[in-house]
Amino acid sequence: MSGFQSFGEPMSPRSRVILPALAAGLLAGVSWQPLRAAVAPPAGAALAAQAGGAPSAQHKFDLGITPEAARRTGPDGISFEEAVKRALIYSAGANHVQHVTIQLMLQHELDRRKAEGEPLQQVEIADGAVELALQQKMEEVGSQENPSGLGFWEQLDLLGFTPETYREDVLRTNLLLDGMFFPEDPDQWPEDLLKRIFEAGSENSYWDTQMVELRESMRQAKAEGKDYPVDEFMRTLIMRGPVLRWLTKNVPSREPFMGLPEGVALRVGSVSVPTDELLAKCWTVVGPVDKRNAVAWVETLWKTQEALRKRGVLMSPQEAADLMVAEAKEYEGSIISYEQVALQFLGFPTMEAYRSWHRLRQSFRKSLPDPYPADLLQEHLALRGSFLAGARVDAEVILISARDPRTGLFPRTGDPFGAAAARAEEAKAKLAGGAEWSAVLAEYSDYPEAYPGAAQGMPQPHRGRLGPLELNPLREFLGETEYQDFVTGVNLADQIFFEAEKGAVYGPVRGAIGYFFFRVNDRLPATREIFLEPVEGQSTEDDVNRHRFLVGDDYLSLHFREFVNQAAAQK
Fold first, then answer.
1. In terms of DSSP bridges, do strands 514-524 and 392-401 run parallel, antiparallel, or are they unpaired?
2. 3-state secondary structure 162-213
3. Local structure of residue 497 (DSSP, 8 states)
4. What is this structure's pTM?
5. CATH code for the structural domain at 392-524
6. Domain ranges for the chain
7. pLDDT of 543-564, one tens digit each?
């Protein structure tokens, strides 16, 4: 199952300029208030047929692959066409998969309650309640700063929603979840079930610390004939979060990683969702870059699997899943979840994509010494210790973006990288003709001066004059993640950080989000020490263990990336 650590689209290039109130509020709470007239969408609001056209009733998709390629069969017996469709669903369509999954989990829970004779609470959602929820969301979004200038419905279109699908897949689903678990009448709450969900009686249980007081406040308001609107933060995170995690844990679900037959992309409870139906739901957000990335993902995945199989180290999906369960336990009680690491820090669009990559990475780990010898760690530290110890590079980068500068997303039509390549050649010609670097940067770089809404103190792009950065912030500015590294085979940040000669101009180089020129102005020394052996008065045993892990993990990342690129290059 995909993780539900947040209830909207994870922060990514796709959502960078979409208003946080909308992007993070796809399952945001709706308070109970008297019904008012709903606001209708404007004429010409985005429809499913826009942006390349929705597929027909027969679900004919132009995946950009030949009929011969479509019929190829992969190591798991699935056709190339099916694998590419699934890759699109669990990358570009991640948001829609999440909502379909939640809808099916709620239906499974309704069926369970009916079968066991439990009260069904508030499960009939009136159209008027949906329209009120829509109006409240529009008012909320309208009150927020909007640097993109995009209207409410334009923003929804970027996320792949029409007015109709937003009402049904998001708002009605929100209201159904609330009605099933937190009905408007607090005396109808399924108390015994909620106590199990919120682990009443355990240390720091939300039930004991938050929900009991909330319920009593609602009861008092009810007795006095008053409305009791629930705080947005409370509803979204404190109330819905544990419910969704409980559903995820208790409703049997299966995604392709754990084995589904050809033509099925999701199974929740007893319901199997056909691949074509799920892709049709996602198709409005699929563009040419998404298609190319999906094809590259499958090709690289299959070739890497075969290379690992030949080495005799390829884990089964079940072995990899068991390992991930064990790893996830290490995050219990942490403010950072295992899913957050995969989706936000490593950049995977879904846990389904992460599982496939993680299986290959951990399989490759089996081909390396275990534990790593001390001299191997020391040698790697000498090679990349500047990164691990907090060294920085002062670089200037010209980005010729393949993304729409207004939305931060790849266009759904045309050839975005082709258009960027043409502009990159113009910039190259000017540099070759003697134009000043700073002048070309000012004319061509698509980096903004600053990202609106960035947290105070966070690095800003300054049109590409990035200033001193450690490696990971540099990767973020370049749009690089572990997911993108796997798809594109390019790691430009390493070239800048470790290899580029100071003062030399490089480019254009194709990267994750466009074409780049770059120049290194300076390298600043490390600010931390890495201890592979204990040093009295300077390092503890915990320090040494942590540093050995960091060095070993970076060694694995570097060599796995090299292995993947070699496998992908094979004919």
1. antiparallel
2. CHHHHHHHHHHHHHHHHHHHCCCCHHHCCHHHHHHHCCCCCCCCHHHHHHHH
3. I
4. 0.88
5. 3.10.50.40
6. 13-285, 289-367+547-568, 392-524
7. 999 999 999 999 999 999 999 9
